[in-house]
Design brief:
Layout: H1 13-25, E1 50-52, E2 59-64, E3 67-74, E4 81-85, E5 89-90, E6 96-117, E7 128-145, E8 152-159, E9 165-176, E10 178-183, E11 186-187, E12 190-196, E13 199-204, E14 213-218, E15 223-229, E16 240-246, E17 252-257, E18 261-265, E19 273-277, E20 284-290, E21 296-301, E22 306-309, E23 313-316, E24 327-334, E25 339-345, E26 349-354, E27 360-362, E28 376-380, E29 383-388, E30 391-399, E31 405-413, E32 416-420, E33 427-432, E34 435-440, E35 445-448, E36 456-463, E37 466-473, E38 476-482, E39 489-493, E40 500-501, E41 504-509, E42 515-519, E43 525-528, E44 551-557, E45 560-565, E46 570-574, E47 583-587, E48 607-615, E49 621-627, E50 635-639, E51 646-648, E52 655-662, E53 665-671, E54 690-693, E55 700-703, E56 713-719, E57 722-727, E58 730-735, E59 738-746, H2 759-762, E60 765-767, E61 775-779, E62 783-788, E63 794-799, E64 804-808, E65 814-818, E66 821-825
Antiparallel strand pairs: 1-4, 2-3, 3-9, 4-8, 5-8, 6-7, 6-8, 6-9, 10-66, 11-40, 12-13, 13-14, 14-15, 16-17, 17-18, 18-19, 20-21, 21-22, 22-23, 24-25, 25-26, 26-27, 28-29, 29-30, 30-31, 32-33, 33-34, 34-35, 36-37, 37-38, 38-39, 41-42, 42-43, 44-45, 45-46, 46-47, 48-49, 49-50, 50-51, 52-53, ...
Length: 828
């Protein structure tokens, strides 16, 4: 019986006896699994699944050092004792297999053998063995390539002829060279919702390999009545969508990414219609709004276009519609005036666009000029509701005598969720600080209720006099209902909502030996128990842990798991075995001033993407971050239990994307790429650099690299007292005591950061594994490699398109990800 979050195995006598009886009563059929699983690999069920292949006797199940084990007792120097895992697992000739086991050699020498047999069960040449000695638990590993004719692979625990001694065996686990461990994270969170005829139409995001789905949800029964997969093509793949709107003719329109496509769904039909792309190039349709006569309006990224669809696409106004805007992030339409309000970014903009004349009027209050985005707009009750970085503005739009328009602010509310209701009886409803509030349009006042909806609402509607919202909760899609007249409310789960895999954004090994993965965009956390995966590669081995948005970095430090989470560069801490979600420790998005960008005499801007994490010997945790949209200067955050934490400028106009502790100081690597929305993407003429931070004095020192304008230092690692780093395809090393002397060796051509700018934030990884002290492992540009520590020579182990990330388990195996799937490469 494997106990999660522990290293050993503890015998539960009653349960083990019952399970053993069940196993003996029925024949064993090995499961089809991503991981190869030996039957009874931890001897929790005695010796079931282990056949004697040598001198009879000598092996028995016992409890040793708190574990269920197989004891091999060899007192005869003329006999050999052992047990082999039978039946063997399927083997493929030419494939390398690796055995791992825990062994306590109380006396003598214990041996672990890898065995290959043909289809008739005959033993073939090609087995490998690993000896072990020592009166403690030792991890032993042996590898071998299946020879021609091999049909099965098995494990043998053994004491040979001429050997005497006693050994205790536990956790005999096996892996092949490359293993697809399958989907790790699932999501049932709608990204966009619209309503028509008593139903909600919710759009669920997929991955590069799994198409998104539209769910039709009956609001009365809270049941999905139809699920429709959104089509695409290899040339224009559809991953997900943020936009949904119901046109005046009752048709439902959906806007998707990364192909900027528009789809129409007619309620009652079984498929959607692909209407084509709203503009050239890969991009997003961020928002959609209905106009008169079945027309829909939309806004896009990255050309900042505003368009109309009435059977054909028409771009309205200039491109971009607001000078300098890359995103038309939000829309609101006033049908009486035939005017549309556009919320733009990356530098926040808010304009009124007259669809008849093309006139554009600027409405953004000056106080929000330094924000990055107007993220949400609603025209209702004769007012414009604008959502900017969790602040809700209620704006009164006024026409002057010369025909121009301006806006005055009726009310301002902070810490408000994105979506709010259509006006009814003179009131608009929204969630502030977790509580449902009403806003009286005429009185310009808000009133809190005692109701906590408990979900991230993606759309509101009215059903009679009842407010209805649909969105995501920790356990999936839910419907929130509230009757303002009576105060009655409910929160109901939706039955049959789509559950789709989420792409893996970050991965790392936890202090409990598990591999943790963080979901891209929709969030969620996956947990993989190494070498013990189940047989369903299209579903996670363990239920997805909810409660965190997109994780950008993972760190095991001082027995805790730390996670850097986007947006707002949030740091969470988790004690394995404790309650989930983890505790929020620090928010980098709350630090700094939106008007600042590390100019001389000024601090950092608010931070957003925590791509780098490192731990100090005093328990401090350090974050290296990319700033909020439209800014160039990342920052270094220092957090320690009992302190408030602080965020510091280190290298103006550059992001901090790698960190490592070495020689009593913290070292950091920068990227010349700023946040999304900066133009040009890379700081002109800048060179990524190495810096050091002295925690005692707070002093920052730059250590320029002897390279020609490197774009990014994406990996740092302390290796045997030295600091190693990757800058593009070059390896650099230095003595932390003499950081002015830097040695550089070209390993690979520089990655094409111009074609793939995201690589300049997170391309490289360097790591060491205790099982192989002579090498350093790394990844760069879709390849995994091994560097000889003595010669600095790199050997490429694997090259796979789409590969990203690298971490290692306690056996020394390597893990990487491709889209939503986790893979393991057995260490050579």
């Amino acid at each position: 019986m494997h106990i999660p979050l522990t290293v050993g195995r503890v015998l539960r006598a009653t349960a083990a006896a019952a399970l053993l009886a069940a196993l003996l009563a029925a024949p064993f059929t090995p499961a089809t699994a991503a991981d190869l699983r030996l039957l009874n690999d931890g001897f929790d069920d005695g010796l079931t699944g282990w056949s004697g292949s040598h001198t009879p006797g000598g092996v028995d199940p016992v409890l040793w050092n708190g574990r269920t084990t197989a004891r091999v007792t060899d007192a005869d120097p003329a006999a050999a004792y052992g047990r082999e895992s039978m039946p063997g697992l399927p083997a493929v000739p030419g494939t390398r297999y690796t055995l791992n086991a825990q062994v306590w050699a109380e006396s003598g020498t214990a041996y672990l053998y890898l065995r290959f047999r043909d289809a008739a069960g005959r033993l073939l040449a090609g087995g490998a063995n690993a000896p072990a000695t020592g009166r403690r638990w030792n991890r032993v590993t042996t590898s071998g390539v299946a020879p021609a004719g091999a049909a099965t692979v098995s494990a043998l625990i053994y004491s040979g002829v001429a050997d005497v001694g006693t050994a205790y065996w536990d956790e005999v686990l096996i892996t092949k060279d490359v293993t697809d461990l399958g989907v790790q994270i699932e999501s049932s969170a709608p990204n966009a919702t619209t309503f028509a005829g008593g139903s909600a139409y919710a759009l669920y995001t997929g991955t590069a390999n799994v198409n998104p789905q539209l769910a039709v949800i009956d609001l009365a029964t809270a049941k999905v009545t139809r699920k429709i997969t959104i089509p695409d093509s290899a040339a224009t793949p559809t991953v997900g969508g943020w936009a949904a709107a119901t046109a005046t003719d009752g048709s439902v329109y959906l806007g998707t990414y990364p192909n900027s496509k528009l789809y129409r769904y007619v309620p009652g039909q079984s498929a959607v219609t692909d209407l084509g792309r709203a503009e050239g190039g890969y991009s997003f349709i961020w928002d959609l709004e209905p106009g008169a006569g079945g027309v829909v309006y939309g806004g896009t990224y990255d050309q900042g276009r505003y368009f109309r669809y009435d059977g054909a696409f028409t771009t309205l106004g200039a491109v971009p519609v607001v000078p300098g805007a890359q995103n038309v992030r939000s829309l609101a339409h006033d049908p009486a005036a035939d005017a549309t309000y556009l919320g733009t970014g990356t530098h926040a903009g808010l304009v009124r666009y007259d669809n008849a004349t093309g006139r554009v009027d600027d409405l953004l209050p000056p106080a929000y000029a330094h924000d990055s985005m107007v993220g949400g707009l609603t025209w209702t009750g004769g007012r414009l509701f604008a959502w900017i970085d969790r602040t809700l503005l209620v704006l009164r739009v006024v026409r002057a005598a010369d025909g121009s328009y301006s806006a005055t602010t009726d009310a301002t509310f902070t810490d408000v969720d994105l979506h709010h209701s259509p006006a009814r009886d003179g009131k608009v409803w929204f969630v502030k600080e977790g509580l449902l509030h009403s806003y009286d349009v005429a009185a310009r006042t808000a009133q809190a209720t005692g109701v906590r909806p408990g979900l991230d609402v993606t759309g509101y509607t009215w059903s009679g006099g009842t407010l209805v919202g649909l969105g995501a909760a920790v356990d999936g899609t839910r419907i929130f209902s509230y009757d303002p007249a009576s105060g009655d409310w409910s929160n109901r789960p939706v039955t049959g909502a789509p559950v789709l895999p989420a792409a893996i954004n970050a991965l790392g090994a936890g202090p409990d030996g598990r591999v943790y993965t963080g979901g891209y965009l929709t969030g969620g956390t996956g947990v993989h128990d190494p070498l013990r995966g189940d047989g369903d590669d299209d579903r996670p081995d363990t239920p997805t842990l909810s409660g965190l948005s997109q994780t950008d970095s993972v760190l095991a430090h001082d027995g805790r798991l730390y996670l850097g989470v986007y947006p707002s560069a949030r740091l969470y801490g988790y004690d394995p075995g404790g309650a989930w979600p983890p505790a929020l420790l620090y928010t980098g998005g709350a630090a700094g001033d939106k008007a600042d960008d590390c100019e001389p005499g000024h601090g950092p801007p608010p931070q957003d993407r925590p791509y780098a994490l490192a731990g100090g010997p005093d328990g401090a945790v350090y974050l290296g971050t990319v700033p909020k949209y439209g800014k160039r200067s990342g920052a270094l955050t220092v957090w320690k239990a009992g302190t408030a934490g602080r965020t510091l400028c280190v290298v103006p106009d550059q992001s901090v994307v790698s960190l490592a502790w070495a020689g009593g100081r913290l070292f950091g690597g920068t990227s010349t790429r700023g946040a999304l929305g900066v133009d040009p993407v890379y700081a002109p003429g800048a060179s990524a650099t190495l810096f050091s931070f002295d925690p005692a004095t707070g002093a920052v020192r730059l250590h320029p690299l002897p390279l020609t304008e490197p774009k990014a230092v994406t990996a740092l690692k302390e290796v045997g007292g030295e600091l190693w780093g990757l800058a593009g395809g070059s390896l650099f090393t230095l003595d932390p005591a003499q950081p002015g002397t830097i040695t550089v060796k070209r390993l690979f051509p520089d990655p094409d950061y111009a074609a793939r700018p995201s690589l300049a934030w997170r391309d490289g990884v360097l790591l060491t594994v205790p099982q192989d002290p002579g090498h350093v492992y790394g990844t760069l540009g879709e390849q995994i490699f091994r560097i000889d520590r003595a010669t600095r020579t790199a050997t490429v182990l694997l090259t796979v398109k789409g590969m990203e990330g690298l971490t290692a388990d306690g056996f020394g195996n390597l893990y990487y990800k491709i889209n939503e799937r986790l893979y393991r490469l057995a260490r050579p």
